[in-house]
Design goal:
This protein is of the alpha+beta class. It has two domains: 70 residues, no CATH class; 70 residues, no CATH class. Helix content is 39%, strand content 19%. The strands form three sheets. Strands 2-1-3 form a three-stranded antiparallel beta sheet, with no helix packed on it. Strands 4-5 form a two-stranded antiparallel ribbon. Strands 6-7 form a two-stranded antiparallel ribbon. The longest helix is centred in the last third of the chain and has 12 residues.
């Protein structure tokens, strides 16, 4: 299995390095020691020797740290977007008319929420119900909220 290591640069950027899984190249620990001798790695610090999490960005503030070591990447998926952004994302995804029809046929409280709310929170019951009704996965909802935030 391929091992990924995370290194932090002097300017607090993250560098991801894949180690070789060829036994002739040595163990992971031996490869890390070797990398530290190379000019390219001068000034870099290995902050995770076997990383399996998400990669949010090279900005070190987007990573979770414990004791100077990376433990995981923080999610960059927004949890709140404006209603305008949400509707534009649904439109671009071909879901706006489906969602609008489902809300029109649903509870009056949902209709009021859809019509007058300034923002959409992914943890709202309305969003959770739409997710189930449209059979969207967590990744689908993440993609919609990420798209919405970019609009």
């Amino acid at each position: 299995m391929t091992t990924l290591t995370i290194w932090k640069t002097q300017d607090n950027k993250i560098q991801v390095v894949q180690l070789s899984d060829d036994p002739l190249d040595g163990t992971d620990a031996e490869q890390i020691l070797y990398l530290k001798t190379l000019d390219f790695y001068a000034g870099l610090t290995c902050v995770s020797e076997n990383y399996t999490g998400i990669f949010p960005d090279t900005d070190s503030s987007l990573w979770e740290w414990i004791g100077g070591k990376v433990v995981s990447g923080k999610s960059t998926v927004p949890s709140i977007v404006s209603m305008r952004q949400a509707r534009l994302a649904l439109l671009q995804s071909g879901l706006l008319s489906i969602v609008s029809a489902a809300i029109a046929a649903g509870a009056e409280a949902d209709q009021i929420e859809w019509e007058y709310a300034a923002e959409v929170n992914r943890n709202q019951p309305l969003v959770k119900n739409m997710k189930l009704g449209l059979k969207l996965s967590d990744a689908d909802l993440d993609n919609l909220f990420t798209l919405a935030a970019s609009l």
